[in-house]
Amino acid sequence: MSGTPPADPSTPVKCLVWDLDNTLWQGTLLEDGDVVLSEAVREVILGLDARGILQSVCSRNSHDHAWARLQALGVADYFVVPEIGWGHKSDAVRRIAEQLDFAPGAIAFIDDQPAERAEVAHHLPDVRCYPAEEAVTLLGLPEFSPRSVTVDSRRRRTMYQAGFRRTDEQARHTGSHEDFLRSLEMVMHIGRATDVELSRVEELTLRTSQMNATGVHYPDEVLRALLVRPGYEVLITTLTDRFGPHGAVGVVLLEKHARAWHLKLLATSCRVVAFGVGTIILNWLADQAARAGVHLLADFRATDRNRMMEIAYRFAGFDDQPCDCRAPVSGGSGKDVQLLHLVPGRRGVPTTVRLIAPGLTDPAPAGEALPYRALHHRSGPAR
Fold first, then answer.
1. How do 186-192 and 353-356 pair as beta strands?
2. Which of 49, 52, 83, 90 is nearest to 67 (CA)?
């Protein structure tokens, strides 16, 4: 492997960027024309996709010619935000990372030319670089082997592709942002987590830092224990719209006390910040607490990345005011954790999304979502 690896080389790779000539396929397109994709490399492409690892292309070729060949080989759909042209490969890899909103350390690059790997490694030292002959070994490496593969992992590529189409349509939209959100025909489900869904929850707490109120990662075994622990709610939020599913986009860990509900964790996917998911969850929780006649307490640990989450809490009405309801949890939230406070009132239903959620005062079985009042701005049934 060429280049400077990150401090922990087993840090998961989120996207592998392929060179084409003599790397992804055998031969040089401009010279050989009829280049060939080996079955071993095809197996790697499909295997990485099934694990939720995105793939892209960075190649010095004519874009139309190379893309037509990828289509003819039946693999074009597996590559997102391709960079096929004649510039520096480090610039192309940087653009891929920026379009995916990934840090360079989440990117890997594979190329048959040592000079190309060295050029990328020089300008992007956190990008892991691999020689072409190692392509068939990638599925066995720890950085390409996520600890768990969930439903959302297996469809990550299609979710990103839907996101690009969604972004393109927003760029063409001439109305207000709220009108655009209504046009998406979004349906949000908040439900009690089940055993099957817990891996999605763990993955979400691992993958998000900007919209994680405490930065705490809850391992699978801890979450499973909380599922059956009296007074705890483990809630998962999923979102769909007319472009397709967003997958699991939010997780809530709530401990119920007699006078207050303690929101120990709220994490939402950075991909849905613009849709107001965190605000919708907080308003729903406030409404549920008001129905139950209790206050809301929320853990928040400020970091250099989660400023947006703090704004969401403050905008929802949380403050630092003293209250007797703090007594059962005061001092128990951990070092550097603020315990925010809210006297909740009833909240209206969201106007840009159809919300389906449980009633938290109802003793529903885990995973069973009870109807919640919702306003849906379109004609016809929800998808």
1. parallel
2. 83
